[in-house]
Amino acid sequence: MIKKPKVLIVDDDVDVQNTIGDILLPDDDDSDDLQDLKSSLFGNESEEIKEEVVYDISYASQGLEAIGKVMEAKEKGEHFALAFMDVRMPPGIDGIMTAQKLWEIDPDIEIVLCSAYSDYTWDQVVLKLGVTDKLIILKKPFVPEEINQLALSLTKKWTIVNNLEEAVRERTIELEKANQSKNDFLAKMSHEIRTPMNAIMGFGDILQSAIKEDKYKEYLRAIAQSGRSLLRLINDILDISKIEAGQIDLKYGPIAIPKFFQECKGLFADRCDKKGLKFNLVIQDNFPGPLLLDELRLLQITLNILGNALKFTNQGSITLKAMFQKAKISGQFIDFSFSITDTGTGIAQSSIYKIFDKFFQVKERATQSMGGTGLGLSITKDLIELMKGDIRVLSEEGKGTTFTVTFPNVEVTGSDFELQANEISPESYVFKNSKIVIIEDIEYNATLLRAYLEGYDLQLFFAKDGEAGLDLIKEHKPDLILTDIKMPLKDGINVINELKSNKKTNNIPIIITTAMAMHGEIEKLKTVCSSFLSKPISKLDIIETLALHLPSEIAEKTSEGKSVPSNNWKLTEKQIERMPELCTILKEDISKRIKKASKTQIIQDFIELASEIKSLGVEYNNKDLYDFAEVFFVSARNFDLKAVKKSIGELPDQIKKIEKIIKK
Question: Per the confidence metrics, is the pTM higher than 0.70?
């Protein structure tokens, strides 16, 4: 609530104080003496001001008294807006010195210097007080309208300036409320859609391997494609919200660009064939790599532009071209760019500058009933700029379009070997008789999890609400708990809080499965669990996550159903050549992170490190390292810090073994 402005009248003559105060707060009962004084001060012009503005007026007879009142008001948070200040106020300090002191206390106060004498020239005033917009000189005799108008204008000015921060704060609160309402709606929408999509896509995935007839397989592929389209729409809307809130975190890692774009081509090959389009992939010779980029976001950018090209191209071709130039800065950096050219409908010049706007669709293109929301290119541009790149477009109606994306000064992270993808299937994992309590209130989601986990050496116990889940945990003492968040009777957060507060259960790994997808919600959930899975969940998602927390190994099933190691641990010549890379990873990245984890003693960090070293053992075909990591993993999984410390102490010996392989 904005208060009425405070005005201070400073003059050694009490009658003058009252007269100015009377003008600002008119009183019909003025005495004859006061009327005479008004005439001497203001001359014959004493026309009444009919519109009354209410001020909170205070008076002071000397400069020091005025300074005290301004200081007291500031301490109370009730600042003066305006001071009418006489220049001569014997025997104390004059109005000029008083004004200097007032501005030291409260720099925002407006001051009107009042005088019947030529005490100072304007140049002298400026010399003492400086050039400022907070000072006006008013000479006697005054006109009442002058006093009224100065008071009105200067207090209005002060109010606008000094209440701007409050107005901004109020507006910010309004915007935050509106943004929160939007986020609440998006979160609810995402949750309600992702929950049934989890079952649709999950059971579709299971049926793909169970059904043999081509006709029904084609139906399942249509279901899967429609499900992915719906999820892309949800993710597009959520991405817009995250980008606007600055909540997208980039995760940089090495990418072999030729292989990356070859995989992108593979994703579009069938769709191009069906439309009779040729897909050209052109990679500049001697392309360096791997490059340090966010693979997920680069994939999102590439697929958005390729999808756009495919949508609006009915004949001809789509060409994806990757290029590079050596960056001018020192070190191993390049300027990386790629272009996507189509021979489609093209874009009118009048529409090119709008195509990156949210929800914008070119009318000529939209009439083709191609679908879409107009979000893809907007998100693409935002992601590119987030990664410090830029995107340009050239197009001609009827002849096609070229999008060019450039990322300057991209780091080349290692030698020019082709990165190997981890192609371990869910069926390759073998678990060792572990017990899992699953708390899931939606029947078809529980059925899906049961289907995903059948065939593994796992004992599963299901509960439909948090209360029943706690009873099962108490009864079976599981090795791992998998819980949803939104459930009847007792939700997942309450279940987790109870488990964490109980010494008997506070060390059991907890995996949260939820359809929540907003950044803030996810970050909060990650702080209370061992792992987090966002629905819809694939079989590989759940198996790989379980393998982080339960004793497991990677193996293959023989025709007789026996589990055998999936690796032929005999090293090839090419694998031996890669051993220096493994040594570097272990010496630099892994050792550094182990040192950090040893200081914090966070068991989850040890579990993740052990799992990562296991993966390195598989990738580099090193059985000793894999066996070491398995012992390390089980020790961390069992919260045996003494055994964890022993494993950490043995890592240098593992590195020495690898170095011996290199020397041989």
Answer: no
